[in-house]
Amino acid sequence: MSTNTLLILDDDVTLTTLMTAVAKDLGFEVKHCEDGRQFIDAILAWKPSHLAIDLVMPSIDGIEILKTLARMDCQSSIILTSGIGSVLLPLAQLTALEHQLNIRGILHHPVLPHLLQKLLADHPSVDLHATDHTQVVKPLSIDHESIDAAIRQQQFVVYYQPQIELFTGEVIGFEALLRWQHPQHGIQLPELFIHVAEDTGQIEALTEYVVVTGIQFIQSISSTLCLSVNISAKSLHNDRLIMMLEQVCQRFAFDPARMILELTETATMLDTQQAERILTHLREQGFKLSIDDFGTGYSSMSQLAALPFTELKIDKSFVTTMEASSKSRKVIASTLKLAESLGLETIAEGIENSMAAIGLRELGCRFGQGYFFARPMDAAASKVWLSHWNGQR
C-alpha cells in the first residue's frame, strides 16, 4: 500500500476542494471520484492508504460500498463524511464493526479542517459526534463496573433484524440483538461484553432488558409477529429465567407462543438434565425453542431428539459459503433433512444475496434472515423498513 495517498468519493465540490487542500498540506497525493464503480476500480489500481467516503450521495449506496470494501479485505484507513441521519449512522458503524473495516472516524458537515487533519495524521479516532473539537478516547475497559454504569446510564440498546418466509416474502418476526451504544467508542457488539456479563451475573439483567424492550417493540408494530431472543447458557443454571419470562409475558399480555428463545448447541450440554428440565417447562408454557448456530457445536441426534426444540437455525458460516462450497451445500441439505425428520422448523442466518435466498428455498429451508433483506436496525429504522417492505409486496 502506498504511503500518504487519499482517495475521495464525494460529489460536493466545496468539500472535495477543502479535503484535497488539507491532505496535500500534510503531504498526501489525492485523487477524487464521484461514481461508486470508478471508486472501487481506483482502489484496486491505486491501493490508497486513506479513503474519504460520503455515505449519502444520491448516486451510491454507502452501506453497499462499505460491504464491498469488506469483501475486498480493504486495509485503508476510512473517513466517513456528510450529514449522516440517525438511521444511517448506526448502520454504517455496525457494518464497519461486523466487517472489521478500519474506520478512523466520521466527519459531519460542516467539516472542520483541524478534525480532518487529525484523522489523516492517524491520531486516535475522534468522537463520532464531534463538531468543534477532538477527543482522545481511552481503550474500552469491560468489567463489572463499566457494564453496571452502562446499565444505569441506559447505554444498552436493542437492534432488530427481520426474519422472512422464503417462499412468500412475508415478514414473520424479528430477532432482538443487544448492542452497547458507548458514548466514546460507538456501537459495541455482544461478543465484546457478553462473556463478562455472564461471569459477573449481569447477564440476567441484560436478558430481561432485551425481552422487555423487544416485546414493547413487537407490540408496537404487530399483534402476530414473533420475537426471537438469544439466551445465555448461564441462564439455564436455575429457575430465574423461567420466572422472568413468565412474569414479563404476563405483564405485557404477550403470548409466549410468539417468543422464540435461541440457545447455542453448547449451552444445552453444560448440564443436560437441568437444561432439559428448564426447556421442557418453558415449552409447556408455550415458548418456542430454537437451537442456534447449528452445525458448529457438538449436538447429537439423541440430544436433539431429547430436548424440546421447535426450530433449528442454520449457521451463517455455511450459508455465506454455500455458493462456492459444495461441502457447505451438503451440510445445509443434510441439516434440513434432519430437521424435517424431527419435525423442526428451519431458519438460515447470513443470507447476503438473492442466490443464497433462492438456493436455501430450493433446498427446503422455510425461513431466513440476513443483509440481503436487512441488517440489524434500531426500532425506528425497523419500523420504516417494515412499512417499506410491506408496501412493496
UniProtKB/TrEMBL annotation:
Keyword Phosphoprotein among UniProt keywords: yes
Keywords: Phosphoprotein
Domain of life, source organism: Bacteria
Transmembrane segments: none
Response regulatory domain ranges (all copies): 5-124
Domain EAL as annotated: residue spans: 140-390
UniProt-listed SMART domains: EAL, REC
SUPFAM superfamilies: CheY-like (SSF52172), EAL domain-like (SSF141868)
Residues with the 4-aspartylphosphate modification: D54
Alphabetized InterPro entries for the sequence: CheY-like_superfamily, Cyclic-di-GMP_PDE-like, EAL_dom, EAL_sf, Sig_transdc_resp-reg_receiver
Any matching Pfam family: EAL
Protein's name in the database: EAL domain-containing protein
Source organism per UniProt: Methylophilus glucosoxydans
